[in-house]
Write a structure and sequence with these properties.
475 residues, mainly alpha, Growth Hormone, Chain: A, 17 helices, 79% helix, globular
Length: 475
């Protein structure tokens, strides 16, 4: 099914080609690179600042929350910059990735360099350093790179099955990066559990290596993907962007579900390292738990196209959400201190649930771009993705916030950890209960919201056909 455009003011596009394995792998490489910075922060930032720098969990959790409010502005600014840009030789989105990927990776390295560059840093100075580096990484450079990256998907293909595969490969890329992080970082934590200075040095050199690896992945993405969806070559006005946001009801519902789900995911991710170290009793379980979680994705990923074709994206979201709730229940209630291997079961079920939901979430976001174009006549990938990205970040911020608070509520002492001491009796059991309970509770709230999601598969097909008819009549 080739698509060409001869309409005035439209982008001249060659016959649409089916996506190849190289295209899918390139898109996967982009999220692998993203996760070398963003997921690195989600998995290990709080552990680094409690156990190496000596900042309490509640202070770090508060930073997650406050910085994300700044994202309300930076995400929308990035979305507007992308929508306002005219496509060039590299398209509309990839220039942003080329320009800002290196600053993103460098600031990610700086996050873990507090005591490498300033060996005696502590107190207010340490908190300021943490805020500045995390703000630059997450709210500025990650925002510019990730919104451009995520906005590409609706421009690469409109085919629902191909979109499902793109979302699945995005999940593969992310999970391979997360797995690599776990197996690279966990031995460093295990080997330097009582030596914060040595852990600081190893983390600095590791994140420096990630700068090189991440740039290779970003370049592979840029030169092996192609925008194929016909669109107007004229920049989108601010008025059009705002009009899309005020009329896009599916985006509102999806964003609400994403906030709640990502709150649960991030609380789980924030406490995951502490589960391994203090509940299962061995930092190496960071790697084994992540392996179990990642293996679940490679079971779930191939099922996504079939689920999209048969029961649809919303029903698949609900199904995988229930699996995630089951995993959270095992995490919170199983006797992990005496049978640590049960953590692998919990992480497998959690991995199946969260990866299934997350994959379908991205496919649903791409659908809301079509809805917005159908409703307003204007295609606003950048602004639509920016709004969705911001709501996801708010979920991540809330998850980091409640995860940090949960550490404090559990009785965890950063001062004791950073001096190489042992936590008080009962702290491990409290961490386990908070991790399972917070994750399950927020997952259930997300499922209640998505049960009411209004954009059905039949309605999406109707919208896509009407948009195609409009374009044909213009041509």
């Amino acid at each position: 099914m080739g698509t060409t455009s001869t309409a005035t003011g439209a982008t001249q596009t060659a016959v649409r080609k089916p996506l190849t394995l190289r295209n899918y792998l390139a898109y996967a490489a982009g999220d692998a690179a993203n996760n070398l910075s963003f997921t690195m922060a989600g998995m290990f930032l709080i552990l680094y600042y409690t156990n190496v720098v000596g900042i309490e969990g509640a202070v770090i959790g508060t930073m997650f929350l406050l910085v994300r409010f700044i994202d309300a502005f930076t995400d929308l600014i990035a979305g507007r910059l992308i929508d306002a840009k005219k496509p060039g030789k590299l398209g509309k989105f990839k220039p942003f990735i080329l320009w800002f990927s290196l600053p993103l990776l460098v600031t990610s390295m700086l996050i873990y360099s507090a005591r490498f560059f300033f060996p005696d840093i502590s107190g207010t100075a340490a908190v300021v350093y943490m805020y500045v580096t995390y703000l630059l990484m997450g709210s500025v450079f990650y925002t510019l790179v990730n919104i451009a990256y995520g906005s590409m998907a609706p421009a690469i293909t409109q085919n629902p099955v191909e979109r499902g595969k793109l979302a699945a490969f995005r999940g593969y890329g992310a999970s391979v990066a997360v797995l690599a992080l776990a197996f690279i970082i966990a031995p460093q934590i295990r080997g330097n559990a009582d030596n914060p200075e040595a852990l600081q040095t190893s983390l600095f050199w590791t994140t420096a290596a990630f700068v090189v690896a991440g740039m290779g992945l970003y370049l592979f993405l840029v030169f092996n993907t192609r925008e194929q969806v016909v669109r107007s070559a004229n920049p989108v006005s601010l008025r059009d962007s705002l009009r899309t946001l005020t009329t896009n009801k599916p985006l509102v519902w999806l964003s609400a579900g994403a906030v709640l789900f990502l709150t649960g995911v991030t609380a789980f991710s924030t406490l995951g390292s502490y589960i391994a170290i203090y509940v299962q009793g061995d930092a190496q379980y960071i790697a084994w738990n992540t392996l179990a979680q990642t293996l679940a994705l490679f079971v779930v990923g191939p099922l996504i196209p079939t689920i999209v074709r048969t029961i649809g994206k919303r029903s698949g979201y609900l199904l995988f959400g229930v699996v995630g709730v089951a995993g959270a229940a095992i995490l919170g209630l199983a006797p992990l201190q005496t049978a640590p291997w049960l953590g692998l079961v919990a992480f497998f079920f959690l991995g199946a649930g969260l990866n299934g939901v997350n994959t379908l979430m991205w496919a649903l976001e791409a659908d809301t771009v079509e809805y917005g174009e159908w409703k307003t006549g204007t295609r606003t990938e950048g602004t639509t993705y920016a709004v969705f990205s911001f709501t996801r970040k708010m979920g991540q911020a809330l998850g980091g916030f409640v995860g940090g608070l949960a550490l404090t509520w559990a009785g965890f002492s950063a001062a004791t950890a950073s001096s190489g001491g042992q936590q008080a009796e009962g702290v491990a059991a409290n961490i386990q209960l908070w991790a399972g309970g917070l994750t399950a509770g927020f997952f259930l709230l997300s499922l209640l919201v998505m049960a009411l999601y209004p954009l059905t598969e039949a309605k999406f097909r109707e919208i896509s056909e009407e948009i195609a008819a409009r374009r044909a009549s213009v041509g």
